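Worked example 3 (structure in, sequence out).
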């Protein structure tokens, strides 16, 4: 029998789990901290930005106690052999062993320094007794109090009415009594701890005792209360927390989220720092609409026999649902069943230059990711891929041998959408210099393609070539001669399949041979010139280049209508397609060509060599028709084209300042006299941590979309976060979302020691679109909403870090 907690009790349990046992450092992903608040700004246009480090710039400039001396040594290794030095206004000693210092007395020994109104010091035992306005500094911490006594050699000491500061982190607080047990351990009684400004704790916890272990990087508070301001909100009989950035076992903060498929989710993961080379995370979750789920992660690094470089690294992720209590809506009959998801990756070094790499991804059913995916942070995944291969490399070659397997995870379609399985496949690539200007190369593949209900078989594709490179910084000529041979061995029953490999797709038989083949030469000459001159624009000096480029390609026509389509598709046309020997991906089609490409590029380079402007324009001129085409139906092929030229293609990248960047592309067809593709991306830097993006993307017959996103700083502490995407209806297209497809709004508050984020996302469920008619069902929503609140106690970790992936995906340049 199963039972459900009431929602209020669920929240209480999750809050307790979040804090009892403390915050575990997140699996070795140590956050970047900066005591002075410095951070590297992400370059304009970057798709991947480094995580924003903890910003302590809003803390008081003097983050240490007022007597901190940065010139003292940062370690205590030489303390035992160092001489003690004393300084004071008044000095007394009757036997040159016991010293009485008074009047701004100082006692310094290597990294240790004690300052007080009076100090009594025993030079034989190194015992000391300091009274009145006591200030103490050693490697790792500061301490101030009214009275302090201890032993310098042993690193022991007891102080009353203490203020303390950790030097390896921002941890600080006050205590009735502070006790240094040795150089690595200290204990505070009736104490507080926080990473906020000294004397201005936005949050803190107060404990009967707080113990700091610098050897393990762990602090422990007992009989403690967590407080926001002066208001206690949670009692903690035992609480452990990190005092540096090393990993430690403990509870991670919980996450709270909601999806239309699974209801409210509460997750309370526990991190296990098992050993320096492996760790694990247990993540029990409760879904209000589906019941419990247990997730786990295990990571490992196995060193080689010499104990140096790792010989094996891997990660295993498992999610298991013992009993799905969700309602059945016709997508999949999973009610009352157990469900699971497995994700395993491994890279094992076999011997020099050779490794075994593999991944295994499998779900119990095609609806698992749809039901249990996080609607706020995760993108749609239609296919799970599993792969195992032996890979090797040398100075001039690389090779791989393995297998590829796919699983459909879109519950709205059947397995016809899956790519062919390749069981097995082999690749071998060579790039061998023969002389200074001539090289021999080869790109060879072989594979056995498998897919139920489709034509199957084996394919061998051999692609040797000779390439030369002549030129200097002002010109180049690169002739290339290649030969492509592709051979098939189709399985029995091949004649029963139509184009696309479909079984029983028509009355004709496109595949008339069981062992068809194709062979042809490929000849190309790529050449260009580079002119440059000095120029001035807006009062700034630049070097301007003018780079004409001519590319000739010849490939004779071969009828390929009797070749199956295993892994081939028409690639999107863009600027780089002007210089490509094939417009198709995969090896099943090789276009014919008697083409001449003409292109022109100009650039502006500043005095530092930074490219501020790049503009390119080009077109392919066809001397012969494009005869090789892909099929458009079961047994029909697109007619050959007689176009004399390709689309005109233009590109513009502009960054005349460090605050503005513009990227744009445009394609216009002289044959149909319409725009085939257009895109515009504009980015503006707002201060050091703000960004504004605008983009427009259009491709004829596929999409037309506008997007705006921003990180807008209102002040030093407040930032607005937002993104909006609007799609325009496209004619003659399978049902697709129109109107606002996604809108996200959020706010972030940052202070010295606390960051708060609140994000709300309204979006179209993308899984239904591009696959046919929109399905119906009682639990199927075409639009959904997700909201999440996150708290970051700087120095203790965050409440899961679930919002960052969404913001990085939706806001270009977000940190």
């Amino acid at each position: 029998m199963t039972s459900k907690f009431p929602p209020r009790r669920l929240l209480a349990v999750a809050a307790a789990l979040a804090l009892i046992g403390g915050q575990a450092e997140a699996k070795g992903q140590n956050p970047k901290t900066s005591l002075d608040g410095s951070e590297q700004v992400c370059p304009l246009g970057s798709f991947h930005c480094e995580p924003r480090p903890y910003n302590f710039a809003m803390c008081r400039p003097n983050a240490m106690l007022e007597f901190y001396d940065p010139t003292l040594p940062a370690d205590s290794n030489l303390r035992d052999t160092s001489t003690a030095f004393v300084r004071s206004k008044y000095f007394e000693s009757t036997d040159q062993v016991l010293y009485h210092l008074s009047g701004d007395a100082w006692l310094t020994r290597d990294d240790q320094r004690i300052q007080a109104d009076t100090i009594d010091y025993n030079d034989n035992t190194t015992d000391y007794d300091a009274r009145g306005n006591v200030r103490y500094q050693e490697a790792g911490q500061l301490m101030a109090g009214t009275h302090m006594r201890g032993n310098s050699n042993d690193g022991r000491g007891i102080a009353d009415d203490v203020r303390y500061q950790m030097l390896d982190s921002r941890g600080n607080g006050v205590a009735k009594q502070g006790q240094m047990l040795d150089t690595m351990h200290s204990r505070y009684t009736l104490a507080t701890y926080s990473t906020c400004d000294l004397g201005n704790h936005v949050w803190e916890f107060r404990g009967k005792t707080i113990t700091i272990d610098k050897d393990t990087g762990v602090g422990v508070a007992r009989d403690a209360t967590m407080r926001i301001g002066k208001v206690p909100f949670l009692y903690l009989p035992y609480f452990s927390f990190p005092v540096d950035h090393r990993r430690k076992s403990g509870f991670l903060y919980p996450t709270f989220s909601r999806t239309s498929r699974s209801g409210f989710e509460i997750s309370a993961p526990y991190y296990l720092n098992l050993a320096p080379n492996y760790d694990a995370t247990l993540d029990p979750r409760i879904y209000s609409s589906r019941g419990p789920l247990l997730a786990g992660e295990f990571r490992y690094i196995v060193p080689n026999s010499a104990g140096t470089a790792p010989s094996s690294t891997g990660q295993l992720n498992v999610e298991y649902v013992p009993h799905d209590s969700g309602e059945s809506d016709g997508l999949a009959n999973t009610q009352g069943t157990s469900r699971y998801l497995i994700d395993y990756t491994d890279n094992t070094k076999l011997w020099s230059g050779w490794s075994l790499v593999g991944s295994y991804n499998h779900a119990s059913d095609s609806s698992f990711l749809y039901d249990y995916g996080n609607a706020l942070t995760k993108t749609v995944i239609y296919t799970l891929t599993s792969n195992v291969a032996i890979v090797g490399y040398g100075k001039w070659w690389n090779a791989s041998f393995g297998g590829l397997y796919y699983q459909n995870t879109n519950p709205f379609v059947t397995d016809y959408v899956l790519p062919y399985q390749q069981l097995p496949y082999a690749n071998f690539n060579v790039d061998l210099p023969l002389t200074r200007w001539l090289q021999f190369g080869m790109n060879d593949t072989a594979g056995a393609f498998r897919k139920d209900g489709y034509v199957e078989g084996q394919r061998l594709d051999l692609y040797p070539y000779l390439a030369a490179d002549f030129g200097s910084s002002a010109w180049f000529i690169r002739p290339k001669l290649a030969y492509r041979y592709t051979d098939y061995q189709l399985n029995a029953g091949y004649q029963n399949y139509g184009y696309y490999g479909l079984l029983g797709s028509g009355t004709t038989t496109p595949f008339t041979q069981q062992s068809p083949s194709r062979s042809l030469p490929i000849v190309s000459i790529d050449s260009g010139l580079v002119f440059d001159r000095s120029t001035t624009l807006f009062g700034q000096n630049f070097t301007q280049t003018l780079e004409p480029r001519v590319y000739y390609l010849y490939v004779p026509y071969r009828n390929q209508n009797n070749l199956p389509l295993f892994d081939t598709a028409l690639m999107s046309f863009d600027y780089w397609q002007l210089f490509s020997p094939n417009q198709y991906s995969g090896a099943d089609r090789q276009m014919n060509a008697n083409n001449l490409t003409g292109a022109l590029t100009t650039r502006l380079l500043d005095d530092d060599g930074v490219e501020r402007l790049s503009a390119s324009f080009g077109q392919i001129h066809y001397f012969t028709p494009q005869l090789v085409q892909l099929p458009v139906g079961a047994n029909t092929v697109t007619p050959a084209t007689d176009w004399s030229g390709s689309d005109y293609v233009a590109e513009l990248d502009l960054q005349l300042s460090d605050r503005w960047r513009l990227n744009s592309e445009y394609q216009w067809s002289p044959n149909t006299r319409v725009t085939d593709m257009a895109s515009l991306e504009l980015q503006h830097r707002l201060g050091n941590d703000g960004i504004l993006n605008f983009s427009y993307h259009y491709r004829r017959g596929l999409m037309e979309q506008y997007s705006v996103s921003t990180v807008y700083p209102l002040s030093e502490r407040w930032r607005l976060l937002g993104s909006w995407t609007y799609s325009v209806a496209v004619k003659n297209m399978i049902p697709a979302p129109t109107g606002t497809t996604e809108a996200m709004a959020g706010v972030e508050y940052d202070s010295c020691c606390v960051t708060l984020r609140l994000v709300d996302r309204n979006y179209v469920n993308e899984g239904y679109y591009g696959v046919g008619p929109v399905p119906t069902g009682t639990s199927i929503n075409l639009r959904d909403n997700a909201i999440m609140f996150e708290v970051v106690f700087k120095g203790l970790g965050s409440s899961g870090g679930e919002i960052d992936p969404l913001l990085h995906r939706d806001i270009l340049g977000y940190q």
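Notes: The chain has a mean pLDDT of 82. The CA atoms of residues 148 and 159 lie 4 Å apart.
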